[in-house]
Structures are given as C-alpha cells and as structure tokens.
C-alpha cells in the first residue's frame, strides 16, 4: 500500500484541488501504515475575529487527515469516506506559522474507523485533541 510514499502523498494532495482543503491551504506531508500528517498555514483566512486560529479550521484539518487515512485502507475504488462523528478539545491558541495534524488509527474496522488526531504548533505543543469516526461506504 505504501510502496511509493511520495506518489501517494502527491495523489492525496491532488485530491485537495478545488476543495475546502485547498481553500485552507492543507497539505499532506507524511504517511505511514497507521499515521497521516498534514499541515495548514495559520494566517488571517483561518483566524477567528480576535486573530487566532479558528477551531473550525482545526476540525476541518483533522477530518481531512482521518478521511485520507481511511482512504488509504481501501484501494480507493468504489468507496466513499465520510466523517460521522468528530469531537475536539482546543487547549492552546495559535496566531501564525503552521499547525500540523498527526492522525493515528485507533480502530481499523472494515466499515467503521476511529482516529485520534493531535493538532500541534511548530514547537510541537498541543493545540487541539480530536477524535474522529469515519465510515467507509461501498458504492
């Protein structure tokens, strides 16, 4: 599955074209069997009115990472991945730079998957702690 990591990252990043992920500047940067990493720039377009990272942008980043990880579990054919539940605890604010979402698989079911995603700043300090449940729908 991860024989060509760079090609897989390139394919994931191409899937972001003309989507919310492109709007937010999300870029997948690393991938392994049970972990996906993406980054997002923190600048005014992802700020809340008081000038810090909007929690909703963090949640969108986390769901993007978990959904991409779930897609990795399939051959990508005849499936649709959906987030069905997400919860986030935001513990620190960020004004600029990048945040990194590191998603780890907790449960690898055929239909239901559970992800733990940490959003970290450039100093690797915890910004948000997120739990995501995805479902794989066969089409």
From TrEMBL:
Gene Ontology MF terms in the entry = 1,4-dihydroxy-2-naphthoyl-CoA thioesterase activity
Recorded hits in InterPro entries, A to Z, give: PAAI_dom, Thioestr_dom
Q: Can you supply one Gene Ontology CC term for this chain's record?
A: cytosol
Q: Which domain of life is it from?
A: Bacteria
**Which Pfam families does its entry note?**
4HBT
Q: Where is the Thioesterase domain?
A: 50-126
PANTHER family per the record? 1,4-DIHYDROXY-2-NAPHTHOYL-COA THIOESTERASE 1
UniProt record similarity statement: Belongs to the thioesterase PaaI family.
Stated name of the protein: PaaI family thioesterase
> From which source organism is this entry?
Halomarinibacterium sedimenti
